[in-house]
Amino acid sequence: MTPIITSLLDTDLYKFTMWQAMLHRNPQTTAEYRFACRNATAFPLAELEAEVRAEIDHLCDLRFTKDELDYVGSLRYIKSDFIDYLRLFQYQRDFITVKGQTDGSLAIEAHGPQVHVMGFEIPVLCIVNELYFRRLQQPGTLEEGRRRLQAKIDQMRALKGGPTLAHPFEVSDFGLRRRFSGTWQREVVSTLAREVPQWFKGTSSVLLARDLDISPIGTMAHEYMQSYQSQGVRLRDFQKAALEDWVQEYRGDLGIALTDTVGMDAFLEDFDLYFAKLFDGLRHDSGDPFEWGEKALRHYRKLRINTHSKRLVFSDGLDLDKALALWRHFAPHIQLGFGIGTNLTNDVGLQPLNIVMKLTRANGQPVAKISDTPGKTLCEDETYLAYLRQVFHIPAAA
User: Fold this and answer.
1) Fold annotation for 13-137+354-391
2) pLDDT score, position 371
3) CB 84, CB 130: distance < 8 Å
4) pTM (2 decimals)?
5) Where Phosphohistidine occurs, residue numbers (predicted)?
6) What order of strands is seen across the sheet that includes strand 335-340?
7) Whether CATH 3.20.140.10 fits 142-219+255-345
8) What is the DSSP letter of 361?
């Protein structure tokens, strides 16, 4: 059977953009990433251990091809020395372990230099997802997926007869990490790009963006911001240090900042006039999206920034109904983008997996995300988490 990952481009764009920034700014950082499943499964994931191992063995044999490097290098914000690095890059099998646990869970951990191990996250999640759903797929599963996809297309086409708002509805595919399969994601994205190009604007998948000639979408994830908790700056200043390095690296490109590493309120305290002018907008990934968006609007207005010149990107567990509701609420005031993941690429009638592979330590010390959604807070060290809350004046979760 063909391996699940056959190209190193089969990953999210923000892996490349963070990778370049980390290589240039903090290449010495060591890191630990851990896999976790947040919901109940139809069978113990430990049963997949041997298959996951074999797929990772194959992943570690892959190299970037010349055509792939030519594509990445054609993106205007990618620098030539980073392409030289990618030309030499190969995943190291010694940096990642896979082991089934007695409780039926699956332990997957990556340890090593961050610029070598950060990339494991996306292919590992793709591998676990696809192996899992191969066991659950029924003869009519994809037909149900196509029926649901057509309903989304019809819903978008219905916008033609609706009211005209100040800013258009624009949606992108953010579903690589939790896709039903690589083949199904390709079908979903190619269908949307063909049928509703007025509203479908791109994909986080670098491979599909290249193959289908659509825009690759993405800037940064939590791991980029979290890593600065270990970089020697004062902890209270880690967000400002991360944002400043991003500005210096990309100088106007990739200007969407992620706000919920320690919560929106603490983020806005650091997102002063300087950063608010330099960044094009903000991305939502936890907490109530309407409340978050209103906070963003108030912040821009307080700084006397024209909100119509900025963009809010929503990407937290969206489906099309929620995205449209947010668009109708905020489009009179600000530019918008919507990244839909699981509900695009794994909406086939089966219960999706809620799996992650997150940064847990950097430079030998714990790092944390204090999400605006309590269940998404990540940290294995309660003492450090309490300290981080104290530094940013964040009350403990109820």
Assistant:
1) nicotinate phosphoribosyltransferase (3.20.140)
2) 84
3) no
4) 0.96
5) 222
6) 200-203, 171-173, 335-340, 311-314, 281-284, 256-258
7) yes
8) E
Cα gap 193→196, rounded to integer Å: 6
pLDDT of residue 21 exceeding 80, the answer is yes
Spans of all domains in the chain = 13-137+354-391, 142-219+255-345
What is the C-alpha to C-alpha distance for residues 116 and 89, in angstroms, rounded to an integer?
A: 8
Q: Which amino acid is at 94?
A: D
Give CA–CA dist 337/280, Å, rounded.
12
- What separation, in Å, do the N-terminal and C-terminal C-alpha atoms of the chain show? 48
Tokens of 384: 């450090």
Average pLDDT over residues 142-148: 98
- Residue 262 has a pLDDT of 96
d(CA 258, CA 243): 10
Return d(Cα 319, Cα 340) in angstroms, integer.
6
CA distances from 372 to 3, 69, 175, 223, 295 (A): 37, 37, 21, 16, 13
